[in-house]
Amino acid sequence: MSEVSEKKWYVVRAVSGQEAKIKDYIASEITRLGYDHHLEDILVPTEKVVQIRNGKKINKEKVYFPGYIMIKADLVGEIPHIIKSVTNVIGFLGETKGGEPIPLRSSEVSRMLGKVDELALTEEHAAIPYSSGETIKVIDGPFNGFTGSIENVNEEKRKLQVMVKIFGRKTPLELSYMQVEKI
After folding, report:
1. CB of 112 within 8 A of CB of 48?
2. What's the whole-number average pLDDT of the chain?
3. Are 161 and 150 in contact (CB under 8 A)?
4. 109: part of which helix (H) or strand (E)?
5. pLDDT at 5
6. pLDDT digits 0-9 by tens, 142-183
């Protein structure tokens, strides 16, 4: 099979919250119409976020670029129209009225894909970085329900020094990011 042209990365703008459904639909539509060889990859960049609910860790996937789907394809002939005609697809990022969709520059692609790889590697990615002086609520452990203020943030250990008032006295606690939430 001879390659007609090099496949490039494009960004499809879609209705936020529907990315995975739209991605699957685009892929099945292209397959159904027999244009598989023009589509190399289609992905929705997500990150893993760990939350603690009732003392249990819950892994959730959060869309990293809401409303955007990355697609690596050879946009020839009908393909741009097929993609644009999919329900909830707004269009291509960067296209001009009546113009051709503009591919991402390779630096942008590696930055976005690098972000995807980086997110896949970080197992426990804290959803919120905390900073000193912030008021937090303890959501896990023996001090569940107490509020306090962050005295110090230890990035390496992913721990927080928190001052909590217990029986009217300020008590320092060392808690993980997962045991607190911002108020």
Report:
1. no
2. 84
3. yes
4. helix 106-121
5. 66
6. 889 999 999 998 877 778 999 998 888 999 999 988 888 888
Q: Are residues 176 and 97 in the same domain?
A: no
Per the structure block, which two tokens stand in for 10?
A: 């494009």
Task: Report how far residue 38's alpha carbon sits from residue 30's, in angstroms, rounded to the nearest whole number.
Answer: 9
Higher pLDDT pick, 129 / 44:
44
Nearest to 80 by CA among 68, 72, 91: 91
Q: How far is CA 64 from each of CA 16, 82, 91, rounded to the nearest angstrom? A: 11, 25, 19
Residue 174 in any domain: the answer is yes
Residues 70 and 139: their CA atoms lie apart, in Å, by 36
Task: Report the relative pairing of strands 8-14 and 56-63 from DSSP bridges.
Answer: unpaired
Q: Which residue in this structure is represented by tokens 């099945």?
A: 28
Do 98 and 12 fall within a single domain? yes
* Helix, strand or coil, per DSSP, at residue 58: strand
Q: Is the pLDDT of residue 33 over 90?
A: yes
73's enclosing H/E stretch is strand 68-73
Query: Could you report the per-residue pLDDT of 46-60, keeping only the tens digit for each?
Result: 877 777 777 777 887
Q: Say whether pLDDT at 89 is over 90.
A: yes
In a domain, 160, yes or no: yes
Domain count within the chain: 2
Structural domain includes residue 64: yes
Q: What is the DSSP letter of 99?
A: S
